[in-house]
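ERR on first pass: missing label on line 2. Operator R.T. fixed the label and resubmitted. Corrected input:
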Amino acid sequence: MRARDLAVAYESVTVDSDALEAARLLAEHRLPGLLVLAGPGEPRAILPASQMIKTLVPAYVLEDPALAAVVDEQHADRLCEALAGRRVGDCLPADAGPPPVADADDTVLEVATLMARVRSPLVAVTGGGEAGGALLGVITASRLLDALLPRG
Amino acid sequence: MRARDLAVAYESVTVDSDALEAARLLAEHRLPGLLVLAGPGEPRAILPASQMIKTLVPAYVLEDPALAAVVDEQHADRLCEALAGRRVGDCLPADAGPPPVADADDTVLEVATLMARVRSPLVAVTGGGEAGGALLGVITASRLLDALLPRG
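pass 2 clean. output:
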């Protein structure tokens, strides 16, 4: 079994996607994160749902969390206005690096080792050989566990 | 809207649960992680699926990842034997702290601020007042986003 056999499609957006639409995607599908592409098939980053939450919290509250208790609920209802006109790329942390990338021909242990070392919840799989560097899909940690567990 | 209105049940195990059963729970429900309890209603840690993967990878491979490519597949098939007889507590990283905990009466913005500051994919909610310190459930980042997004 190789990485290509475990890779599945995953919800993805591009750095130029509308940030509000990306938030809806996370919310509606109850996703822990999205795969962000720089261009077709080019993994750029993982955008965790918690990072999207961070984008919504006003800077003055992040600096002084005690203020969160005194902001009235009407204001809280409008937090998502912070996303209007913004792109997904604007929501990524400054230090967001590319997600770990496995080659289609990597073994299950190679994928597991990569995931364990960077503590990433998912690994992108790009095609070696005839597929060039194209994105084949992702492998989540739970999918990999499923492949490693004995049957029955 | 308060934290108590958003808290939902979440798959949880205790530090004394069987590690192999916990891995099965992650795999079968395709969960990004489990809530680990120290005792009834007492949040101890979050166990990410990627950490469970890390438990399976032999120490000598983590130290020298190039070895992952040369371990044969029969060996890889037996990686889960590393979990036999182990408890969930044995799989937690040494530095695993308790998950962030919100009070049932916290506002949505307070929960969002807590989640944003610690970059946690979920927040445990324990009951204030009549419920004492009992665990009411968890709020995931995507659930919180759903609550914050404008309707329609």
